[in-house]
Amino acid sequence: MTQASVKRVKFASQMEPDLYEDLKSVAQEDGRQIQAVLEDAVRIYIENRKRPMARRHVLDALEVSMIEHDALYQELAK
Q1: What are 23-52's pLDDT values in tens digits?
Q2: In whole angstroms, how large is the CA radius of gyration of the chain?
Q3: CA gap 27, 74 in Å, rounded
Q4: With contact defined as beta carbons under 8 Å apart, do 66 and 73 qualify?
Q5: How many whole angstroms separate alpha carbon 20 and alpha carbon 66?
Q6: Ramachandran quadrant class, 31 (left: phi over 0; alpha: psi -120 to 50; beta: rest)
Q7: What CA–CA distance (Å, rounded) separates 50 from 20?
Q8: How far is CA 30 from the centre of its chain?
Q9: Residue 18 to residues 42, 43, 45, 76: CA-CA distances in angstroms?
Q10: CA 43/CA 14 separation, integer angstroms
Q11: 26: which residues sit within 8 A by CB, 6+ positions away?
């Protein structure tokens, strides 16, 4: 199925003027329509949300471990 034959849903939204100008610039630089750039951005955002994210306490524990055991990790990396 080609991009032109894909059914589309119209919707209205708003964004900050500076962000919209950046969006227009990106679309123009890429030689694409704004809707194509937006679709790609939304698709990437949704895919990233589906990925499991580390919980905050796990990241905090990792950071503490990296600080406390830095010398050991340096030796193990050799």
Answers
A1: 999 999 999 999 999 999 999 999 988 888
A2: 21
A3: 45
A4: yes
A5: 41
A6: left
A7: 26
A8: 18
A9: 19, 22, 20, 47
A10: 18
A11: 37
Alpha-carbon gap, residue 3 to 32, rounded angstroms:
13
Q: 73 pLDDT exceeds 70? A: yes
Q: Give the pTM.
A: 0.60
Whether the Cβ atoms of residue 34 and residue 24 lie closer than 8 Å to each other: yes
Q: Note whether 37 and 30 are within 8 A (CB).
A: yes
Q: Decide: 26 and 33 in contact? Cβ < 8 Å.
A: no
Task: Write b or e for each residue in 5-44: b if 16 or more Cβ atoms lie within 10 A of its Cβ, otherwise e.
Answer: eeeeeeeeeeeeeeeeeeeeeebeeeeeeeeebeeeeeee
